[in-house]
Amino acid sequence: MPHVPPLALYVHLPWCVRKCPYCDFNSHALPAAGIPDRAYLAALLDDLAFAARGLEGRPVVSVFFGGGTPSLFAADAIGAVLRRTRELLPTSPDLEVTLEANPGTIEHGAFTAYRDAGVNRVSLGAQSFDDRHLVALGRIHSHGEIEAAVAEVRAAGLENFNLDLMYGLPRQTLDEAVADIERAIDLAPAHISHYQLALEPGTAFERRPPQLPDDDVIFAMQGECQRLLAEAGFGQYEVSAYAREGRQCRHNLNYWRFGDYMGIGAGAHGKTTNAVTGEVMRTERVKQPGLFMSASRAEQRASASRVVAGSDLAFEFFLNALRLNEGIEPALFEERTNLAFDTVSGAIAEACGRGLLEWTPDGRCTPTDRGRLFLNDLQAIFLVEQPGDGRRA
Ligand code: SF4
Q1: How far is the CA of 23 from the centre of ligand 1 (A)?
Q2: C-alpha to C-alpha distance for 257 and 251, rounded to whole angstroms
Q3: Backbone phi, then psi, for 164, in 5-degree steps?
């Protein structure tokens, strides 16, 4: 029988108070009439039952409410999705349930209600503690609202929380980037995600690019912030993710280790492995919330689904797993792709030869410092690997 990886659930809640100019997520500014939360919840629950078909008996290891701004939804909606998940599928005893929340959308006591609904991890979109930069990013909150949100999270006993921060912001100096990371560390979260601002296609920033720091300054920001995070006990385990011991995000680890996940909600993506055939299926939902809600049958919400060709599986695995500092065990590759490790031996040898990968004494294949620096080049080596005969096309 084929190996079947752990199963997670991603729930997309697609509205924000307003659209940030750098954002390429499937997020939409609040309608004037407010969020149609009841209609969206009904569609989500129907979508969840549809996504769970064929996965009966497989335990869910993590649930992630992402967006958009999930904290615009009331705790009872979050609780209803979790209850329905438990009705449809078993859940692991240490189920991780993350809710993304944006400062400025948090009412007093809200996190206590989310906790009571089943949330046990919060990810706060802080981005910066400098109000000038927050304005430039189009964020609705001030640094004071981040600190108020952290106090609310703590008051609810949710110590397992993440702060999202960005660097390389318009006209940001090295000192300002360092001040941001120092403030984040002072707030003692369990996890910090530290991303470089990118001008993504289709965003307002791509159409009217702001003046960003030059590459040398960005490189220095990354290096200095990494150093401060390490000094403060935050271990880097992925390109942008840092955690205290035992506080890595299990949901994201499951993506990077090529686990399975149902993706429900407008524009959500999913990936599941067929327990009988071993085929990997990728799914996608319609992006427009209006279409997602108005579908009269669950099938109409599925905008795309495709079986991943064997020749693409190895690349998709490495695209994810090479982001992890822990590197790759050959056994994990075989379990997650149902391919023999030999099928990638040519690519591994090439990456090692170019100084981008190395074998550790305990038998893991790990990106070198150079490999991490040139991650796109490293990932591209696996793009054309052909399973079955180890040939490169
Ligand atoms: S709050 Fe987040 S999801 Fe919403 S528009 Fe801004 S960056 Fe995008």
Answers
A1: 6
A2: 10
A3: -85, 125
Query: Whose Cα sits closest to atom 8 in ligand 1?
Result: 23
Q: What is this structure's pTM?
A: 0.95
> How far apart, in whole angstroms, are the C-alpha atoms of residue 133 and residue 140?
11
CA 154 – CA 303 distance, rounded (Å) = 40
Q: Coil, strand, or helix at residue 126?
A: strand
Please state whether beta strands 91-101 and 260-264 pair in parallel, antiparallel, or not at all (unpaired). Answer: unpaired
Concatenate the DSSP letters of all residues of 185-252 into one string. HHT--SEEEEEE----TTSHHHHS---PPPHHHHHHHHHHHHHHHHHTT-EEEETTEEESTT-S-HHH
Angle at 145 between CA 141 and CA 146, to 5 degrees: 95
- Of 13, 19, 72, 100, the one to substitute when testing ligand 1's pocket (max ligand atoms within 8 A of C-beta) is 19
- Spatial separation of the C-alpha atoms in residues 93 and 334, rounded to whole Å: 26
Over the stretch 225-273, which tens digit does the pLDDT of each residue have? 999 999 999 999 999 999 999 999 999 999 999 999 999 999 999 999 9
Tokens of 262: 């149902």
Residues 166 and 213 sit within 8 Å (Cβ to Cβ) = no
